[in-house]
Amino acid sequence: MRSMPTHAPLKDESLLRLADATVVYADGTVGLAPTSLAVAAGEFCVLLGPSGAGKSTLLRSLNGLVPLAGGTISVQGIGTLTRASDWRAHRRGTGMVFQQHQLIGRLTVLRNVLTGRIAFSSTWRSLWPASLDDRRIGLQALERVGMLETALRRADQLSGGQQQRVGIARALAQQPRLLLADEPVASLDPATAVRILQLLHGICRDTGIAVVVSLHQVDLARRFADRVIGIAGGRVVFDDAPQRLDAAVLRGIYGAGAEMAGSAPAGASANEAIEHEGTGPLPAAA
Ligand SMILES: Nc1ncnc2c1ncn2[C@@H]1O[C@H](COP(=O)(O)OP(=O)(O)O)[C@@H](O)[C@H]1O
Ligand SMILES: [Mg+2]
């Protein structure tokens, strides 16, 4: 396994850069030990690690959902994020996709997608019917994820995979340059999980939006990642191409449970890893 340099190389094309970023929760749990890394524009990064490793903590720190106890985050075009206005600007350009997609079931699909536009309107404006521009952007986002024909259906009438597509469309409606996806396929069956990752990967490739997605399945990371960031115990323990995920690296990420974590050869079924997750310990906070 490679040891991590204290400061990741600062590439000019970096979209986002952490320098010694650290997260400590109120009860003293170190969610993220000092971490330095950079994400390039258009990169498809997979955060890989078992439950409780710190994947959600790292993802949430990237858009300020958890505050840093130390270190900094810098973003292309904004600089080091310090003022509230810096964070607002960064969040506007950062779409989030969640495991439980968090759609409002009684609203139409399009209405859900349009909530992705709210950051661009004032609060009172968002209470009024969406502008034609916003509707066009929302419909384009639905088209991109193959869900245009469902625009006027209630969100709770859709399957889990379809709801996740809508969750991705909502993030795209923000016209982001960075997409953060926290275990977006953990609640889906293996075949649907693959299709959702294909969709995210295609969006990354076609639009140049950088994607940071957390997964716990090694086979899916191998299949889709341009780069794998392995996390264990709140630390980045691996940061390299997926081809370099060998048995020793996997033991470093998953400990003795490495074989259980889906370390089967590339292309193997995602079933085992998904079933394993179902029996694994839950993180303290969702
Ligand atoms: N709000 C919180 N308060 C205290 N500890 C937390 C909180 N959220 C997460 N943790 C702890 O931080 C560590 C990393 O959790 P998390 O980032 O959720 O891991 P993962 O997403 O990889 O499952 C775990 O030990 C977890 O219990
Ligand atoms: Mg998590």
List keywords for this structure.
single chain; binds magnesium ion; binds adenosine-5'-diphosphate; 286 residues; 10 strands; disordered C terminus; alpha/beta
Commentary on this structure:
The protein is an alpha/beta fold. 32% of the residues lie in helices and 22% in strands. It contains 9 helices and 10 strands. The strands form 2 sheets. It has a 6-stranded mixed beta sheet with strand order 6-7-8-3-9-10, sandwiched between helices. A hairpin with a 3-residue loop joins strand 4 and strand 5. Helix 4 packs across helix 5 and helix 5 packs parallel to helix 6. The N terminus and C terminus are likely disordered. The structure holds adenosine-5'-diphosphate and magnesium ion. Adenosine-5'-diphosphate binds next to helix 1. The site of adenosine-5'-diphosphate (ADP) has 15 residues, from helix 1.
Structural classification: alpha/beta
Work out the number of β strands: 10
How is the biggest beta sheet arranged? 6 strands, mixed
Strand content: 15-25%
Rounded to the nearest angstrom, the radius of gyration is 19 Å
> What's the shape?
globular
What hetero molecules are in the model? Answer: adenosine-5'-diphosphate, magnesium ion
Low-confidence stretches: 1-11, 263-286
Biggest sheet strand order reads 6-7-8-3-9-10
What is the mean pLDDT?
Answer: 85
How much helicity do the residues have?
25-40%
Secondary-structure element string:
EEEHEEHEHHHEHEHEEHH
Counted by DSSP, the helix tally is 9
**What distance separates the N and C termini?**
30 Å
